[in-house]
């Protein structure tokens, strides 16, 4: 259910040029507000896409961002887009990641697709016709055995970003090798984390809770991974994922003495119709395993 008091707060912060006659003019942004009040979320979303296609004013974008975030209180974005994926396209997810290591923060974007048809490419462009990164990679990410068992293949497009992906309108396109295609508009919100993971000790972390979680969205997932540097790349040697009862420390592991990387990730999810939109915060540390203690100790 949309909370009208919070919505009114959003209306008050609208650009002052529209404040006096907000509900007297028939404008696209006015229509978006009305659709939100009525719970017509797919109609609201279509209007917001139209508004962003025509106007990239920063104040307007911030206002649409507030409306979009408010709409998640209804069903976590499931009703924003009613058109289903084509039969050959099984799943689509867009995942933003921030990777925080001592003295450095980097950003990546992953577009993961499961398709029953071989894919030629997957692309996500910022409107208007702007590449979001020069450093990209695309390919199949599962082996032949898994592909044959599922009668579908998993693909990933990776974007190595120079900065955090900004709020705005994006165009997603999936192309098969036999010239079939799927495309749609995606609005990426300005992400505000409800929970943040931080280091609290050598091999311990804490989860800082900033807001109540949306009961319509999946619970955040906590992933703990240990990597070793082998053959000029980091390979996972141990990992666990938790959706409740999150641990706050790494237990003793039966691994040989060496230098490792400990990674802790907190992932949150929402939908845009059939598409999953994810945000992952990852913190990493370098550790040594002591031969005497047989456990992880900070370098």
From TrEMBL:
Keyword set, alphabetical order: Signal
Pfam families tied to this protein: DUF2861
Signal peptide residue numbers: 1-19
InterPro entries per the UniProt record, alphabetical: DUF2861 (IPR021290)
Protein name (record): DUF2861 family protein
């Amino acid at each position: 259910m949309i909370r009208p008091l919070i919505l009114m707060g959003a209306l008050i912060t609208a650009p002052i040029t529209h404040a006096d006659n907000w509900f007297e003019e028939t404008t696209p942004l006015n229509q978006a507000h009305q659709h939100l009040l009525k719970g017509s979320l797919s109609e609201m979303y279509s209007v917001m896409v139209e508004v962003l296609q025509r106007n990239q004013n920063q104040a307007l974008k911030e206002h649409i961002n507030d409306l979009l975030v408010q709409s998640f209180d209804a069903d976590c974005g499931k009703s924003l887009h009613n058109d289903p994926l084509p039969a050959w396209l099984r799943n689509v997810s867009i995942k933003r990641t921030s990777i925080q290591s001592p003295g450095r923060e980097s950003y990546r974007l992953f577009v993961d697709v499961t398709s029953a048809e071989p894919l030629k490419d997957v692309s996500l462009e910022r409107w208007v016709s702007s590449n979001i990164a020069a450093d990209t990679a695309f390919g199949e990410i599962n082996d032949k055995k898994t592909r044959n068992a599922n009668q579908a293949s998993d693909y990933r497009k990776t974007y190595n970003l120079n900065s955090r992906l900004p709020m705005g309108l994006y165009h997603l396109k999936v192309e098969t090798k036999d010239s079939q295609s799927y495309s749609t508009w995606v609005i990426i919100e300005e992400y505000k984390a409800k929970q943040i993971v931080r280091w609290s000790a050598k091999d311990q972390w804490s989860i800082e809770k900033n807001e109540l979680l949306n009961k319509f969205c999946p619970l955040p997932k906590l992933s703990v991974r240990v990597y070793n540097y082998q053959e000029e790349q980091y390979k996972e040697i141990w990992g666990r994922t938790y959706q409740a009862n999150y641990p706050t420390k790494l237990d003793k592991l039966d691994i040989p003495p060496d230098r490792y990387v400990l990674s802790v990730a907190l992932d949150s999810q929402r939908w845009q119709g059939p598409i999953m939109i994810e945000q992952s915060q990852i913190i990493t540390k370098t550790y040594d395993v002591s031969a005497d203690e047989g456990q992880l100790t900070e370098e």
